[in-house]
Design a protein that fits this description.
Layout: E1 7-12, H1 19-31, E2 36-43, H2 44-50, H3 54-68, E3 75-81, E4 95-99, H4 110-119, E5 125-129, E6 134-138, H5 140-168, E7 174-178, H6 188-201, E8 207-209, H7 226-247, E9 254-257, H8 267-277, E10 281-284, H9 288-300, H10 302-317, H11 319-323, H12 340-343, H13 348-355, H14 366-373, H15 376-382, H16 384-392, H17 394-415
Parallel strand pairs: 1-2, 1-10, 2-3, 3-4, 4-7, 7-8, 8-9, 9-10
Antiparallel strand pairs: 5-6
Length: 419
Amino acid sequence: MKTLSKFSIGVGDRFAHQGKAQLQACVLASKQGIEVVPVWNKSNREHLIIGSEPSSTRAEADAAVKALGWTKPYFCDADHINLGTLDRFLDPCDFFTIDVADYIGRPAELSTIAAFTKNHPELTGTIQLQGTGETIVITTDQLSRTAAKFLFAVQEAGKVYRKIESAKGKGNFIAEISMDETDTAQTPAELLIILAAIADEGVPIQTIAPKFSGRFNKGVDYVGDVSQFAREMALDMAAIRHAVAHYGLPADLKLSVHSGSDKFSIYPAIHESMRKFDTGVHLKTAGTTWLEEIIGLAEAGGPSLALAKEIYAEAYAHRAELCAPYATVIDIDPKQLPAPAAVSGWTSDQFTSALRHNPADPAYNPSFRQLLHVGFKIAAKMGRRYLDLLEADEAVIARNVTENLYNRHIAPVFLGRHP
């Protein structure tokens, strides 16, 4: 049976060119005595935008593993799939992020809700969450309302899971359920009820991605109360431990933090919670590699810097179109976006200082960074013009990719070391 290691990291690679550089960050962690398993993830939306196939993600991962002699586990993730988008991922993938966010709030059959409530009297009353010093209180009415809100979504996850199982075989893939792309964060009480429902549905998930409070915008730091996030993280880990003990879910079930890219301010809280509960997390960092490619091109100067500026100019011109699919996970201040004419005169240092996520640098521009984060469609349309420069400047780009993934993500979250 395939199992996910205690520590794992989702690495997105929009153009399937940075697999070796990404894997090198996991190699560096291994040299520190920590196994961090890479999971290459790319959503159906990203494949459609770029015009790629899931098989390209698998090919890049396999090539990187062969080149670096990686002997530990690794996976290829069908990211944010549902019944409508699953089929093209079945053959190349062995990790499936089942996204049920769109189904939350759709009512299940009244008889199903009533049966769930009747079958789980242990979920009402006061429940002690070990390791937190806190309790949660769930009333019968709250149990019924939560079931009404989430049961349909869990049933949909069950349908997707069973289709994957029929194609891949039981135990031959990792299953995750994602419900993070919603408007409202799930409470620890709701998470516990959801996990009971997932167990009833017979879905042996190894990770679950709830929505936390605060803003998880693409490519920039967390916006919210860090102490509140830390409390939620601890309570959710305790809820998972309780569910594993009571409902037969996999013993290694862990939290998945989506849109985790560059959430530097909450990384200490994640590390502390993992240490406290002796558990792991799955951290998704999709999108940062694409930005490191642009940073590397800008550092390389010459035609590569010119191309980076051209990508920004086109992204600026088409910003409404590019931002629309990501409206819930970006906050761009149009007044903070520099005019393309001004950017055309920038040096390499000016461009990289504005783009690289270094809040201590007065030149860092979060709006500039977020626009380029969603601007990979511009590079995709360039085809070989873009890819040829990626290959020509591989050394400088790879250095940026590896340093970013290891120093800014792996080391703080899994090693407790902060830049």
